[in-house]
Amino acid sequence: MHNPQLNRHGELTHLLSIEGLPQEVITHILDTAASFMEVSQREVKKVPLLRGKSVFNLFFENSTRTRTTFEIAAKRLSADVINLDIGRSSTAKGETLLDTIDNLCAMHANLFVVRHAASGAPYLIAEHLARVGRDDIHVVNAGDGRHAHPTQGLLDMYTIRHYKKDFTQLRVAIVGDILHSRVARSDIHALTTLGVPEVRAIGPQTLLPSHLGRMGVHVFHDMAAGLKDCDVVIMLRLQNERMTGALLPSAGEYFRHYGLTPQKLALAKPDAIVMHPGPMNRGVEIHSAVADGAQAVILPQVTFGIAVRMAVMSIVPGN
Ligand code: CP
User: Fold this and answer.
1) Burial class (CB within 10 angstroms; exposed 0-12, middle 13-18, buried 19+) of 123
2) Which of 26, 113, 149, 307 can pair with 143 through a Cys bridge, CB separation 3.0 to 4.6 Å?
3) Domain 23-148+304-318 is of which CATH architecture?
4) What local confidence, expressed as pLDDT, does residue 245 receive?
C-alpha cells in the first residue's frame, strides 16, 4: 500500500503517522536524536543543518510542549522559525487551509509543522503539495484530531529506550482515555513495530476503542490486574474536548478506579517508569505523589522531545 510519507526509495519525506513506518526508519530517528542530545549540553546549542531554511509552525489547536519544543529544535538546527498566530491570521476571515498553505509556500516555506483538530489535516497538506509539484516542501504532523501524534510517539519510544534499553523484553501499559488519544495510537504502532511483546490498554469500556485486539493490544478494565508486573506505565489525560456526551460518571469516580496512586503503582515492577504526554490533570488520572515521584520520567520526556524533533526535522528535508 502507498505510504504518502515515504518516497519511492522508502525514505521519510513527511512525518504524518507512525503507522506503516518501517522499524529501521523509527530506529534511525531515535539514533539521530541520541546524537543531538549532546548539542543541548553545549554552550552554543546550534548546528547548521537547516541554515537558510524556513520552518513554519502552524498550530490550529493549543499546545505548550509540542509547539515550544518544535521551535527550540528548529532554532537549534539554525532554521528561521515563523510561528503563525492562527487567532490573528486570515483563517479567521474564512481563508481555507490550503489557500493559507499556498501563500506560505509563496513566502518560501521549507517545512510545515502542523497541529490541527481535524484528523487528516497534515495529510491534506502533504497531498496538496504533491499535487502542485512541491516535493521540496515537507510536512510534520504535530497532532491531528484523535488520529496521530507521531513525534510524541517517537519521544515516548526514545524515553523508553533510554531507561529500559531493550524493547523486546517489556510489558507496557497505556492507561485511560485511549478512545480519544492520538498519543495512544501512535505509541501502540511504535511499540508493536519495535517488538514490544506485551502492550496493555487499561480503562473503562467507554474509553477504549473496540479494535484494540486487532492491533495486538491486551485489554484490561481492572487497574490492579492491568498494572501487574509492568515495566512502563503511560498515563493519559481525559480528553474532555473530544468527548461527545457523558462517558464517565465523574472525575472523582474515574480517579478512584483509574487514577495512578502510589498504592496502584506498587503493583507494577519496582523499577517501572511512569510516563505522561502532558498536560497532566493531577487528581484526575494521576496522584501528585506519583507525578512528582522517583519513578516519573515525565519531564525528561519533554527534554528528549527537543532532540527527537531535531532528528525528524533534519531527516525529512534530506529525502
Ligand atoms: N503532549 C502534547 O502534545 O502536549 P501539548 O498539547 O502541550 O503540545
Assistant:
1) buried
2) 149
3) 3-Layer(aba) Sandwich (3.40)
4) 61
